[in-house]
Amino acid sequence: MAYLAFDEIAGGTVLDRAATPVADPIVAPVTPLAAPRLSALEWSVVALAERDRLSTLRTPGRMAIAIALLFGDRPNPQLADPRLEALRRIAVLSWHHGYTIPSAEVRAFHAAGFTPDQYELVVDSIGRGRAAANARRFQR
What we know:
The structure is a single chain. By secondary structure, this protein is mainly alpha-helical. The chain has a domain at about 80-140. The protein is built from six helices and no strands. The chain has helices at about 5-10, 40-50, 60-70, 80-95, 105-110, 115-140. The chain is elongated, with a radius of gyration of 28 Å. The model has no long low-confidence stretch (mean pLDDT about 80).
């Protein structure tokens, strides 16, 4: 039997194969992600959306405009910032329908720059708020 010293050929030392971790090319390393967050302004939009009706999500038609001209203009709850308006729309739908939100609204929410984790944070937070409001309502 012959012995070949590879460390002499390579000009370095032989590393112990058991001691060196081999990276699996299929499995990517797991990096801890930051918890999803919303700013104070975004949370205030979510809180204010609790009082908005579903009708605020639709653009006013001719009849609504005529009635507004006759009886006085109602303040428009739609927000000028498209990102905050997408958040308000998701919050209004969540306050009224819970977790059943149209997929087009969810796609618009993500297109506005929010992450799926932020979507879950908003909807879960509103779900807890709805549950607390229902519990208070039944205690009376």
